[in-house]
Write a structure and sequence with these properties.
single chain; 11 helices; about 75% helix; transport; transmembrane; NitT/TauT family transport system permease protein; membrane
């Protein structure tokens, strides 16, 4: 039987109920739960946008500063069809995505490697811990003008900031995941004659994967933030540059339109990350269904 558990008073079955019937009932309950969640998510979104539109049209809020959903939609349509003052919308979005993706992948790989390496080596972790804490204490956005001054307005400065934003998030989780690995499993592997590399590959890394994936879910958003902040401080193209121009011209609809674009891209990346995680972590038991 599939590994599905139910944690709800409604999940009561008559004596003699087969495993297939129990599994089918569990799957139906999961499907109903997903439908309820989706309904309320859409309902809250529609209600929020409707209230915003109503408040703007009735002048409960100043539309000059707060815009309205219809104005934001019109601006997005205009950008998509006619382009922006800084060129094609898709080109600017592509610039930001390139910066964020390079920073995300390089920061994630470096964070995982350094986190696992220091997590497995107590001496090195004790030596470098003070430096890591010192660098981590620096507000990331403060580094944007420094990187731009050193590397210029091009790709490198934005990638560097996105890298820094991602690295420490992934590193902290990878390091903690290694430290939280099951000591009994490590001891059993060593009893069976496993080498340090075999223990790391077969026990430590799989044990830390949940921690690593948890950091990856949020780190892409940080990579986007790093790229946009860098563009906001100084750039020729990108979504951050569009926000900076909209701010300078008091274009509230333009600022909200750029924010909506960032939200859509980040949610899409989160969806892809979830698919990848589910594919790579099929060994994990499914979460129990709790309808409370």
């Amino acid at each position: 039987m599939a590994n599905i558990t139910m944690n709800t008073p409604a999940a009561t079955f008559r004596p003699g109920t087969s495993d297939k019937e129990i599994e089918a009932a569990a799957l139906r309950a999961i499907k109903r739960r997903k439908q309820v969640v989706l309904f309320w998510q859409v309902a809250i979104l529609i209600a929020s946008l409707g209230l915003w539109e109503l408040a703007s049209s009735r002048n409960w809020i100043d539309p000059f500063f707060y815009a309205s959903p219809s104005a934001v939609a019109e601006r997005l349509y205009d950008w998509a069809v006619n382009g922006t003052t800084e060129g094609s919308l898709w080109y600017n979005l592509g610039v930001t995505m390139e910066e964020a993706l390079i920073g995300f992948f390089s920061g994630s790989i470096a964070g995982v490697v350094v986190g696992i390496g220091l997590g497995r080596n107590k001496l090195l972790s004790d030596i470098f811990s003070v430096y890591i804490k010192a660098i981590n204490s620096i507000p990331r956005v403060v580094l944007a003008p420094i990187f731009i001054m050193i590397m210029g307005l091009g790709l490198a400065s934005k990638v560097a900031l996105a890298f820094i934003m991602v690295f420490f998030v992934v590193f902290a989780n990878a390091f903690q995941g290694v430290r939280e690995a099951d000591r009994d499993m490590i001891a059993n592997a060593r009893i069976l004659g496993a080498s340090d590399w075999q223990v790391t590959r077969a026990v430590i890394i799989p044990s830390a994967m949940s921690w690593i994936f948890a950091s990856l879910h949020v780190s892409f958003g940080f990579a986007i933030i790093g790229a946009i902040v860098g563009e906001f401080v100084g750039a020729r193209f990108g979504i951050g540059q569009l926000i900076s121009i909209a701010k300078g011209t008091f274009d509230a609809a333009g600022m909200f339109a750029a924010i909506v674009l960032v939200m859509i891209v980040t949610l899409a990346a989160e969806y892809v990350m979830t698919l990848v995680e589910n594919r790579l972590a099929k060994w994990r038991p499914q979460q129990s269904l709790d309808t409370h």
